[in-house]
Design brief:
By secondary structure, this protein is mostly beta strands. It is about 10% helix and about 40% strand. Pfam families: N-glycanase_C, N-glycanase_N, PNGase_F-II_N.
């Protein structure tokens, strides 16, 4: 009897160990609105002790970097993430949230069979999304292709908001656990935040341009790593832009804080156009008087502001406005319920310039008009995101005009040509017919006191070859939304702050977005763009003016 009892215990343990070692390869497909999607299938290897989530592309060797795998140690209640960032670099981390449980409500109806396995239905909510999962206890396993519901059993289907999710496509029993998939070494683990940061940054290309650089008014100021012009109010750098796929999207991001200047100032991130023999950089180096002049009706001349045969003005990537003293003056005014921001971050899609910059060495600069020795500190980065949905794929640009006097301290006066009926008129020549042309147009009004164009709405009219293409009044009503960026804005007796006031298409602490004006198909030959704005008269010692920039965008 004893021997038979011992034998039965041995056999039970033996077959239990065999069952524990049973490993399955489970494949899942994504679906939406009832149809399977052509996406990289999720593949999960699972037994009672552990499971691993990966992709079919990893198994086939056709992976696209970065790609992530998740290893779950069920016995130890530990989960690990490993990301292959490139062919020769991978990172791993212990994820403290992999075994975080959710509150599910079991459903009495809705159960079904998936690949002949009976399932149960449970429901929960994640980030305001209704989640349904179908799981089975038929195989004695606990695993999920997205970690949701693993505590209930083996998840075979996940559905979000009733119409999209992932569903099991096949279950295959294996002879053993794949030797290639092992738990990461403890000594190689990054902390969770460092891992997530490295993974996120590996998904796009970062091109640093400026890092905590000062823009100020200091005659004679010089720097070793960058070019400085206009007594320090303009900085410029030559940057190498990598070659990328045509479906990439580009963003420029600028972080600004006061370094002593308390006022709201006009700022511009610009690109030196090099499509003609003479560029704006030539004038920056040799004097603005060496550039072609635009002459207004009364004879006042403006160097380097409009396109001529042989010369192109700068391409404006982003127009921004500094707030009143963010960071440097945060301790000047303390108010209950208000915490001043420590900097301003401006980020803008500039994908229409991709074809102009990719795979090239280009000059990118930043201007902030100010008269302060401390001025401002800025950091500027270009990010390129491959495989994005790009509204401007394969777009080309032609610079036409830029009246923002970025070389104010170097010989460019304030643009007051809109005080006359002609306004701004620019002639340009096309070598070939162009289809579906747009004018990328940025406009902001400035100057004067209470009656100046900064605070008075003025219509902008854009003509192409005498035909009115667009008339609109650029105006911002949301300036009060940015109060916490303006610690030393002027305050009035009625409780308003100067930074609250509505303005001609800008607010202290914001970007001014470009407007894309349809010009239609343009034939080869000469054309004329005219911009008319009823600029206000001089008010005491203050003059109204308009900063405008325009370039053609075409395929």
């Amino acid at each position: 009897m004893l021997n038979r009892f011992v034998l039965s215990i041995f056999l039970a343990c033996f077959f239990g160990q065999l069952q524990a070692q049973e490993t399955y390869k489970i494949t899942y497909h994504a679906f939406r609105d009832g149809a399977m999607l052509k996406q990289d299938p999720i593949v999960m290897f699972v037994n009672k002790d552990k499971y691993l989530i990966t992709k079919e592309s990893v198994l086939s060797g056709q992976l696209r970097y970065p790609t992530e795998q998740i290893f779950v140690d069920i016995q130890e209640k530990k989960g690990y993430r490993t990301s292959q960032l490139s062919a020769d670099r991978s990172i791993s981390s212990l994820d403290p949230n992999i075994f975080k449980t959710l509150s599910f409500v079991q459903q009495d109806t809705g159960a079904k069979k998936l690949l002949k396995h009976p399932t149960k239905l449970a429901r929960t909510s994640i980030n305001s999304n209704a989640i349904d999962i179908w799981y089975t206890n038929d195989l004695g396993l606990h695993a999920s292709p997205n970690l949701i519901g693993q505590e209930l059993g083996l998840v075979l289907e996940y559905r979000r908001n009733g119409n999209s999710g992932i569903r099991v496509a096949s279950i295959e029993k294996l002879k053993s656990w794949p030797k290639a998939f092992v738990q990461p070494e403890q000594s190689s683990l990054l902390d969770d935040l460092s891992y997530k940061d490295a993974l996120w940054k590996s998904k796009f290309i970062q091109v640093p341009i400026f890092s905590n650089e000062q823009i100020c008014f200091q005659p004679g100021i010089k720097s070793d790593s960058i070019l400085r012009f206009a007594e320090g109010t303009v900085i410029l750098k030559k940057v190498k832009i990598p070659a990328v796929s045509e479906d990439s999207q580009a963003f420029i991001e600028l972080i600004e804080k006061s370094n002593g200047d308390a006022y709201d100032r006009t700022g511009s991130v610009f690109l030196i156009a090099e499509d003609q023999k003479q560029s704006f950089l030539d004038g920056m180096k040799n004097g603005m008087a060496t550039l072609p002049m635009y002459t207004e009706e009364k004879g006042v001349q403006y160097p380097g502001m409009v396109r001529t045969e042989g010369f192109s003005p700068v391409l404006e990537l982003m127009r921004f406005f500094t707030p009143f003293g963010v960071s440097h003056f945060n301790d000047r005014l303390q108010l209950k319920g208000k915490t001043w921001q420590d900097s301003v971050s401006y980020r803008q899609d500039i994908s229409e310039f991709m074809q102009t910059i990719v795979g090239k060495d280009v000059y990118i600069g930043t201007y902030i008009g100010n008269y302060d020795k401390g001025g401002h500190k800025i950091s500027l980065t270009l990010t390129i995101h491959p495989g994005a949905s790009n509204y401007a794929q394969n777009a080309k640009v032609m610079p036409l005009f830029n009246t923002t006097n970025i070389m104010e301290m170097g010989g460019q006066g304030y643009p007051t040509m809109y005080a006359y009926e002609q306004g701004l008129e620019v002639k340009f020549k096309l070598d070939q017919d162009l289809k579906n042309v747009k004018l990328r147009y940025i406009t902001t009004g400035h100057g004067g006191w209470g009656n100046g164009d900064e605070f008075v709405p003025k219509a902008n009219s854009i003509y192409l070859d005498t035909e009115l293409k667009m008339k609109f009044t650029p105006w911002r009503l949301d300036c009060g939304s940015y109060r916490l960026y303006n610690p030393v804005s002027g305050n009035f007796e009625n409780g308003l702050s100067s930074s609250d006031l509505s303005r001609s298409n800008w607010c202290p602490g914001t970007i001014t977005n470009p407007v894309f004006i349809d010009l239609g198909d343009l034939s080869a030959g000469e054309h004329t763009i005219r911009v008319h704005i009823p600029q206000g008269p001089k008010e005491g010692d203050s003059q109204s003016f308009w900063n405008t920039s325009g370039c053609l965008v075409y395929q």
